[in-house]
Specification:
Largest sheet of chain A: 3 strands, antiparallel
Strand content of chain A: 5-15%
Distance between the termini of chain A: 46 Å
Structural class of chain A: alpha+beta
Oligomer: homodimer
Number of strands of chain A: 3
Strand order of the largest sheet of chain A: 1-3-2
CATH topology of the largest domain in chain A: Arc Repressor Mutant, subunit A
Chain lengths: 110, 110
Amino acid sequence: MLEQRKDHLEARARVLKAMAHPSRLFIIEELDKEERCVCDLTAMIGADVSTVSKHLSVLKQAGLVLDDKRGNQVFYRLRVPCILNFFGCVESVLESRAREHSAYLKAVGK
Amino acid sequence: MLEQRKDHLEARARVLKAMAHPSRLFIIEELDKEERCVCDLTAMIGADVSTVSKHLSVLKQAGLVLDDKRGNQVFYRLRVPCILNFFGCVESVLESRAREHSAYLKAVGK
DNA sequence: TGGCTATTTGGCTAAATTGCCAAGTAAATA
DNA sequence: TATTTACTTGGCAATTTAGCCAAATAGCCA
């Protein structure tokens, strides 16, 4: 595999990896609606603040969100607005699986 | 967070996680061009066959690929054709980061 | 049948991830 | 200044992941 292609694949993989966690997907969906401070997100997710803060730093590190400190709160927002359209395909994977699974159940007679 | 929403986020996260590895992204790109047997992919990636086989089983488990045994070879293909368009957004994240980084370097005078 | 070739699986170790608590920093307010 | 609120960071234990080798399975062919 060419070195350049490898670098590119690694860059893409890092972005996907940053998104590949339920709480981080939740954050992305919420930030798509409006910017939020850490405290809001923490309340919605229901985990420790430190945990949410670390999730946010993963997203920031990957270039998915931007932060903005105002007073003693830190507000996060999406850096790239397209992220949610992005999920059309993930959905079709899930639907394809669901269809196949129910066809299977039918075939087995359940 | 509602239980149903949580389940949905977990399902999406599983798909993304399966994609979030350079070798697996490589496999997805190659399978988008044409179906391939494990031996082809192994030669292209340059890792142990067992490693490639495990990557393929991750993709299969996530519902991203289908396998088809013919003779003593197993051919894999994408289950969902949209996966590559899917990357438009990942690219824009990467480009956004690159732009910002070079603006930073310019500001610092490098 | 015996020996190839292709693939998967088990087992192991090293490394990364997750989540909590505790401690530290920074801004607002009493 | 002392306290409170908001957030980040360090550190730890439990879990998961990645990659290799070795062994097992399955299909082909001499």
